[in-house]
Design a protein that fits this description.
122 residues; mainly alpha; 3 helices; elongated
Length: 122
Amino acid sequence: MDNLELAWQTYDFHTEMAVEFEDKHTNLIERYSNFIIENLNPSQSQKKWLLKRLNKSFNRILNTYVKQMDAVNDLIQLYNSDIDIPQERELDKQSLYNLLNITATLSEEMKIHRKEINEVLR
């Protein structure tokens, strides 16, 4: 297997993981929303339990985004090098930069969301 194919497989793997973690996180955020609506005066232990689960979920997603961005950076380096790119893997390099920016933006938005939730549950 060549480096380009390995880089794409690495990116695909981390993307699949991100989708899985995001789906689970969406369910947990829905649970958080219901918790806030249904509990006018939640106990500290209830808040701590939920906060721990949410932060674990945030961390998994954020770590996966870092791995995705690392994989995209590897792809950018390969596409900028002098290797032969197979026709089925040809693409506009700007697409990779856009993908990197989108993932970085998602990561920053996730950090903001985590901070907001942490403030509510503390």
